[in-house]
From TrEMBL:
SUPFAM superfamilies: Putative modulator of DNA gyrase, PmbA/TldD. It comes from Acetomicrobium flavidum. This is PmbA protein. PANTHER family: METALLOPROTEASE PMBA. Signal peptide: none annotated. Gene3D superfamilies: PmbA/TldD superfamily. Residues 30-94 form the Metalloprotease TldD/E N-terminal domain. Belongs to the peptidase U62 family. It comes from the Bacteria.
Length: 455
């Protein structure tokens, strides 16, 4: 499909590669991960073409495991026997230079039925033409300008699509394909009103192209930028913060690394030793779910052939568990949660699928009505500065001032600082307006007693 190698050729190459290991008596297991993807994107600035990019990549990786659990990995971008022979040679060589690991093993739970997650759009797999992509970007630009005359520049109107297929084969007998697609759209605008100027934007991505509401994305980019246009800082004080779903999803994204079992074992998470303890307010329920229909983080099986599944991480604020691949699950004596992530050139590690906070029952306006004085937060700035080990953060915020349930003056130039784990205990309300931004989702959150400082 779309110029990628035929499946019969891929399978033949993979089986041939495994067969070449028979002469290496110390190698007790091996698996092959093949990935191929095609992507296309277009980007315009004020209607002028900025980028037209088309790409295709094919890669096959071999992992070998010896009798003491040493792992070696090598990969190539060709399916020719000469290249595959070198992959076998280097994978075996690399295994000799690694340390023994008694917890390394292949997935031996075969025969588990897989369920379709509806993550493949045949329309996207046909390819993106320049004409279709440019028309979408033109519509984005026009809608942004028509939404508010204060839009002075559409700095980016972006549309892209991608198709990926994965094949996994192991010496334990696992042999399976999965395929997935993605469509993404972004709009960035500059707005001005007198001497005031603000840049902002909005984007969305979906598994199916027709699930993207292009015009709404353009409108959201303008509306979110307009909300903070001319924003001023408030006096330094403790405030009730109402995070909209997008800001809340950014907040949730900070939590991911803390729940990965490999980070817990390496001392990179403060959650080590806190299983079964209350670590957040009782209104916080955190889920990781690879089975969501059309979810951006959904998959049929993970990087070790374990079926994707749903895992409850926080229930009523209590730490229920962590996310595992096979190795770290064996360390803790628990089953894998199907959260192995890996590339063709990397050893298995752990990652989230669709990570989200379960919604509550009240809509956003109900949450706002309960706030006499607070800040409605639409943007969290500086997320990259978060320290997952200590939980400390210092973030900029943008949004609007809340007075008696109504949104008034725009707010910007303020910062919040503290510890993420402390903040989790101050979440007092969870809205019903859950939205996903990529593979992370959240409803609006109300957080009390947060010190916000003007800068």
């Amino acid at each position: 499909m779309m110029g990628l190698p035929e499946r019969d050729l891929v399978e033949s190459a993979a089986f041939w590669t495994l067969d070449q290991l028979k002469g290496h008596k110390y190698i007790t297991g091996a698996d092959i991960l093949y990935k191929a993807d095609v992507s296309s994107l277009l980007s315009f600035i004020d209607g002028n073409l900025e980028e037209d990019s088309r790409g295709k990549a094919v890669s096959l990786g071999l992992r070998v495991i010896d009798e003491e659990g040493r792992q070696g990995i090598a990969y190539c971008n060709l399916l020719a026997k000469e290249a595959l022979s070198k992959v076998v040679k280097w994978a075996v060589h690399n295994s000799k230079n690694n340390d023994p690991n008694p917890y390394v093993e292949l997935n031996r739970n075969q025969g588990v039925p897989f369920e379709d997650r509806d993550i493949f759009d045949p329309f996207i797999a046909e390819g993106l033409s320049f004409d279709r992509g440019s028309k979408i970007c033109a519509c984005l630009t026009e809608e942004a300008r028509n939404t508010d005359k204060r839009v002075k520049s559409v700095r980016e109107a972006f549309y892209g699509e991608g198709y990926e297929e994965t094949f996994y084969l192991s010496s334990e007998g696992f042999c399976e394909w999965q395929k997935e697609t993605v469509a993404r759209c972004d709009v960035v605008v500059i707005m001005s009103d007198g001497d005031e100027m603000e840049m902002g934007g909005f984007g969305d991505e979906r598994r199916y192209a027709l699930d993207l509401d292009y015009l709404n994305i353009a409108r959201q980019a303008v509306c979110r930028t307009r909300m903070t246009l001319g924003g001023k800082h408030l006096k330094t004080a403790k405030y009730v913060l109402v995070l909209d779903s997008m800001a809340s999803a950014s907040f949730v994204s900070l939590l991911e690394d803390c729940f990965l079992a490999d980070n817990v074992h390496k001392g990179r998470s403060l959650l080590s030793g806190k299983l079964g303890r209350q670590i957040a307010s009782n209104v916080v329920n955190l889920i990781d779910d690879a089975t969501l229909n059309r979810g951006m983080g959904s998959y049929i099986f993970d990087g070790e052939g374990t079926p994707g599944q749903r895992t409850t991480l926080l229930s009523g604020g209590v730490l229920n568990g962590f996310l595992y691949n096979i190795e770290h699950a064996k360390m803790d004596g628990v089953p894998s949660t199907g959260n192995c992530v890996r590339g063709t050139a990397s050893l298995p590690s752990v990652g989230a699928s669709n990570l989200f906070i379960l919604p509550g029952t009240q809509d956003l306006q109900c949450l706002l009505n309960k706030v006499d004085s607070g800040i409605y937060v639409t943007d969290l700035l500086g997320l990259h500065t978060f320290d997952p080990v200590s939980g400390d953060f210092s973030l900029g915020i943008k949004g609007a001032y809340i007075r008696k349930g109504a949104l008034e003056n725009p707010v910007s130039g303020m910062t919040i600082a503290g510890n993420l784990y402390d903040v989790l205990f101050h979440v007092i309300e969870v809205g019903n307006d859950i939205k996903f931004y990529g593979s992370v989702g959240s409803p609006s959150l109300v957080i009390e007693d947060v010190t916000a400082a003007g800068v």
